[in-house]
Q: What sequence folds into this?
């Protein structure tokens, strides 16, 4: 009986420890990557504000050439929605909507992931003039994991993983625009 009680205490402790640890683990992350494009800011912004153009530079849009894409509204305007559906679990199903545009400076999106997981996360792209023929572009994304799912931060570096994907997209954007 005493041995059974000790085993039970150990099992309960093993189960409880991750939940206690999760109380002290971050719940939010934010990632921004930057690139300089040798084009005027108006030309760069006019290109990136069209969500359909992400098909030419976003890593996620390029991962599955067979994904089904649908659109609602007028591209490059608030309320436009670009949706995707893919059998590839790294792409999944979701949509992004333009929620704000500060013409020539910033475009804000809401990403709504449906599958393989559900989440609503904000993202944005900004442009800033460096000189008459150079533009600084920032691409940012942030996310949140509720307790106890935030334990994933102990095992996965989301900032590095997502940052690499954003940087790859920006590198491709640079090539596309500087052609």
A:
């Amino acid at each position: 009986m005493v041995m059974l009680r000790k085993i039970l205490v150990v099992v309960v402790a093993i189960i409880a420890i991750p939940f206690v640890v999760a109380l002290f683990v971050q719940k939010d992350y934010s990632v921004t990557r930057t690139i300089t494009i040798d084009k005027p800011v108006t030309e760069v912004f006019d290109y990136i504000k069209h969500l359909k153009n992400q098909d030419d530079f976003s890593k996620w849009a390029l991962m599955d050439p067979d994904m089904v894409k649908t659109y609602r509204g007028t591209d490059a305007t608030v309320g436009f929605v670009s949706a995707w559906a893919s059998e590839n679990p790294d792409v999944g199903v979701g949509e992004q909507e333009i929620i704000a545009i500060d013409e020539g400076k910033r475009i804000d999106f809401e990403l709504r992931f449906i599958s393989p997981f559900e989440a609503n996360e904000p993202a944005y792209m900004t442009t800033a003039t460096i000189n008459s023929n150079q533009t600084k572009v920032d691409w940012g994304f942030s996310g949140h994991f509720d307790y106890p799912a935030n334990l994933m931060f102990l095992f996965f570096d989301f900032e590095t993983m997502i940052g690499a994907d954003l940087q790859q997209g920006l590198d491709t954007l640079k090539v596309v625009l500087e052609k």
